[in-house]
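Hi U.,

Before I forget, here's the chain from the pilot set. I'm dumping it here mostly so it's searchable later in email.
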Amino acid sequence: MSLLIVACNKISNNVFDTRISEGVIEYRVSFPELSDESITATLLPETMTYSFKDDEFASFFEAAGGVFKNKIIADRKNKRVDHELKVFRKQIKVLMNETDVLQMLADYPKMTIIKTSDTDSIAGFPCKKALVVFEEIDIPEIEVYYTQEINMDKPNWCTQYHEIDGVLMAYEIEEFGIRMRLEATSVESSQVAPDILEPNTEYQTISKEEMDVELSQLVETFEL
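Structure:
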């Protein structure tokens, strides 16, 4: 009887949960530490797409007219992250399991997430605000907005924001040594094509250390 009650509760929750559980979020990308006139800024991505379904997501952006493409595919159920990078004809990727992800997170600057009572609306979704304060005083604090009106369980499990239980709608990351701010501009409820969430088998698998070298060289190319 108790098992039947639990099963019925799960079915009931799924039936009455009207939140989006599959779709695409588009983000506007800006660079707080670069001026609009910077040549580097003109070569960097202007948008990022985030496709999600159940326990999986894929974030993607490209720059320099498609010369550079960056994609991260995360599968929470199988605790796997694939980081794919394409620069000109070079196609490489890093595969990370749960241990690799935990090591990666440990290497991020130490920070404290302070949840607040402030709210806002971004891309039509109600969002809560959090402040991110770093132990290193030279790293500026970050304002983060997240929503719990999108049906994803632990969407940030493989990111530095893993303590936040909600989909990030405005936040900052550092990629390739460059600080980026992302803010959602639209959320579309739609079916995600299976290939978007599938790792590309044509990419050459390398180690994370080798990928770090590739990314360092890429940053040098952008620093004009």
